[in-house]
Amino acid sequence: MEKIRIGILIKVRDLDGCRWFYREVLQLGEPVIDSTFAVEFFGPPRVRLEKSAAAYLDPATSPLTLTLDADELGPLLRRLDDAGIDTEEVLRPGGRFLRCLDPDGNPVLIAAD
Fold first, then answer.
1. pLDDT at position 49, please?
2. Are 18 and 28 in contact (CB under 8 A)?
3. Radius of gyration of the chain from its Cα atoms, rounded to whole angstroms
4. What is residue 27's predicted lDDT score, i.e. its pLDDT?
5. Residues near 99 by Cβ (< 8 Å), separated by ≥ 6?
6. Chain centre to alpha carbon of residue 51
7. Alpha carbon separation from 30 to 17, 56, 92, 95, 104 (Å, rounded)
8. Alpha-carbon distance 41 to 68, whole Å?
9. CB-based contact 34:19 (threshold 8 Å)
10. Which DSSP string do the residues of 41-52 spell out, in sequence order?
11. E strands within 1-79?
12. Number of neighbours of residue 22 by Cβ within 10 angstroms
């Protein structure tokens, strides 16, 4: 049977800040690719950050939102709080989520149920 692997590519302006956020705060682990123009975390799914100075990048209007399920929500909330990252509770089809933004303004939803 053919296997398809899923990955997410997020274009960012602040690669260093996003590298730190995804590695340290969300704890996606050490990147398998770590350069001045791209950072990739092994999944599943793979999460790849690419540096871009494109003027059209506007995270507020992006159709992409990274969603996560945390085994233990408490430690993640403490890391977000320690990093000064605000969260807000949102209700969406499928449940209750906490919403935050990465350093570039890209939305992240964390399952809270």
1. 96
2. no
3. 14
4. 93
5. 87, 88, 89, 90, 107, 108, 109, 110
6. 15
7. 15, 29, 31, 30, 20
8. 14
9. yes
10. E--SSEEEEEE-
11. 7-12, 33-34, 38-41, 46-51, 66-69
12. 23
Q: What is the mean pLDDT of each run of 10 residues along the chain (113 residues)?
A: 86 95 95 96 90 83 84 90 94 88 93 82
3-state SS assignment for residue 22:
helix
- The pLDDT assigned to 64 comes to 82
Report the alpha-carbon distance of residue 43 to residue 97 in Å, rounded. Answer: 21
User: Cα 39 to the chain's mean position, in Å?
Assistant: 12
Structure confidence at residue 1 (pLDDT): 75
Q: Give pLDDT, residue 70.
A: 84
* Structure tokens that stand for 50 in this block: 């690419």
**Which residues, in sequence order, are CB contacts of 72 under 8 Å at separation 6+?**
none
